[in-house]
Amino acid sequence: MSLTKRILLAMVAGIVLGSLCNLLLQSSELDDVWRRAVNDWLVLGVFDVIGRMFVASLKLLVVPLVLVSLICGSSSLGDSARMGPIAVKTILFYLATTAIAISIALLAAVAIGPGAGVEMAGDAQFEVAKPPPLTDVLVGIVPSNPIAAMAEGNMLQVIVFALLFGYAISHAGEPGRRIASFFTDMEAVIMKMVGLLMELAPWGVFALLAKLFAEMGISAIMDLAAYFFTVLAVLLFHGLVTYSALLATIARVSPRMMMHKMRSVWAFAFSTASSGATLPITLRTVERRLGVHSSVAGFTVPLGATINMDGTAIMQGVATVFIAQVYGVELGMAAYLTVILTATLASIGTAAVPGVGLVTLALVLEQAGLPVEGIALIIGVDRLLDMVRTAVNVTGDATVAVIVGKSENQLDMAVFGDPRADLESNRK
Question: What residues pair up with 292 in beta bridges, in sequence order?
């Protein structure tokens, strides 16, 4: 059985077993001894430990992979005068897809009206820390201590340092070439580590989903069904239709082939709910399965995992309209434009970790003049939606990598068109 099929089977098994555990824990007929055994030993013991170990093992590779990939990519581009145009294209595409995502979300939410008739505002209580000033955010992008940035997992600072280091390598002559060779070998070793961890993925995916559904259950969805399914529908539309249209019209490649090769990445993203934790798998797939040259993939994918949050923007758009309808607040055209701009810019600073979208949603609500307490209304189902929007985020990263790679003639169409391409590196 292929790895993708094993992961999908583990997902289904985890959801089913987790839901059964939730029913057992909610049953009044279950003896207290057995309830404690199921909850403490199985859910909070076995499932929790295996799931957290799996996520930790993925995060183990994020910083070294981003650092090495960006150094390799920028060093190979630094002396070709293409680094600047590639960076501009990448950032513009990420901002454009995020703006499209939030616009679709607002249109769908206004048309469907998920908050109409919902009376929950009186129970809403939510506290959120104030976001830092924009000036501090801009200053914080530049690392004063790159080692500390790596230790703290500050990805924007790691990206800036890696780009500068790679550019310096490309202009350092023979010493630079020796250092570049070292990082090229290091990247191959790290990719091998990613492959080893992927073999353990079914167990980690199973444990993560079993614990989540044991704690939440399926019933949590029904309490906010209109909101939940509106967000879900927009996420699926953007992930499958919008990206497919961009691939077909701009890159002129087969969207179906790319979606076929992204299945294992989706499984990782869905189970971890973290673009950062999924980054090693996304980068490996973009390079070895989709055929994007490492010089482009090594820049676009790590940057996308940091600033491209289309799925988060979709949630923020629907949630804004939902909360406005619950509280009976009319939003005008100026408010909608403010939401689009704020959500697009806020997505750039969204950390690639689970649940952080709720924090940036507070900023969007404040700019729209809506009560931040309304976030409490959607917390119950946000963890499930977070899993889906992470899958959308990583799909956006791969889509932009393919588009930029094709525009730079750095997309190997033989690899892209081969359904079984994976094992051999496409480095030129």
Answer: 411
